């Protein structure tokens, strides 16, 4: 039952249209197994951003990428002297073409032919990932990340991204994407980039480039870097952060969670954003220059926000929107069930009765989400923080049972051992006995009780036969 990450395809990610965690959250009739697969696919991230080029009206079209080792096909190294026993290569190619009006006006879901289109730019990237052992080669915490970019003049374009991993002879090719490029100086509303941290505390203008788009890590503060077109020094500017609806396409503003009036300390005038790649890391540098651009840099207290989708807006004193973008606060290593509201509520069945689940499930998605959050908030051991340790522990136990107790016949959390583990946690001691006659026996000991399971098949299925208080 356990899904192997080794054989996951990341073609969905290359298309830049993979279903986000926020979109998954509101989907109905999706199984836990589907969520496991989607969660593993989402570890790989591709996104794009626009920056001003060095000359004239041109802009830099940038594709960022973040590919964990678990998504790469590693091979064993033949070099016995190397401390890295495994390696995998990765190649990327970005090709951009001038679009014709017929192709550009096609609906988003229709694939676009590139035949006969005039090339506008091409860029490539290649690197090798090394791992000291097999476990490291399957890590989600080690990754290849960076960017590729091409300079483009204002206009309409189609582009494709090709990827080749390991010993693959053919590249995986994304669907053709569309992009409309405008002059950076003529923008009426600026974009907002996010960065997890400064490159060094002593360098106030160099930031680590976030290669997962506008997705930030839940409970971690970050920097918002907002381009302010037509900036006026005599104007005042205010930044607002608003929590949005459950579904990505539902931008219903639910509540304002943060407001800050920008000061001179936030504003950087006459700067030019530049991408750098040093010591294996991508950076965004706001370099001083003549006749440059104006950016605002704001420290965002994301540790105070829920795991959700948000919109950042910068307005001037007249109320005009100067910059706007969305960001998603994503819980790293989020338990699988919490990716989807239906699944998260249904999995409460191990600790509540059917009537409680029915009550939480009544109403709209927003109402159901509010009742679900309230259920766990009442049981939060640290109510002054956003992170609920008890909820995390409960759903992590469900993941553990799926990974360790699933068999050909039963999903782990539906097994007797799985249910006991979910309710009581890790046993103090597990003792397995193999009698000469009769079934294999497994004894789980807790401080106040003992559970005895007996094997019913030779494939890992066990049945609870005794529950004894001590």
If you had to describe this structure to a student in words, what would you say it looks like?
This protein is an alpha+beta fold and 470 residues long. The protein folds into three domains: 43-185, Sandwich (Immunoglobulin-like); 187-334, Immunoglobulin-like (Sandwich), CATH 2.60.40; 336-469, no CATH class. The protein has helices at residues 11-14, 21-26, 32-41, 101-104, 134-137, 341-346, 354-361, 365-377, 389-405, 416-424, and strands spanning 45-52, 59-68, 75-76, 86-98, 119-131, 143-152, 155-165, 172-173, 177-181, 192-195, 206-208, 215-217, 222-227, 237-243, 255-261, 267-278, 281-288, 293-300, 309-316, 321-330, 429-433, 441-445, 449-455, 462-469. Strands 3, 4, 5, 7, 8 and 9 form a six-stranded antiparallel sheet that branches. Strands 10-13-18-16-17-11 form a six-stranded antiparallel sheet, with no helix packed on it. A five-stranded mixed sheet has the order 12-20-19-14-15, with no helix packed on it. Helix 9 runs antiparallel to helix 10 (416-424). The longest helix has 17 residues, at 389-405. The chain is globular, with a radius of gyration of 26 Å. The two termini are 34 Å apart. The relative contact order is 0.11.
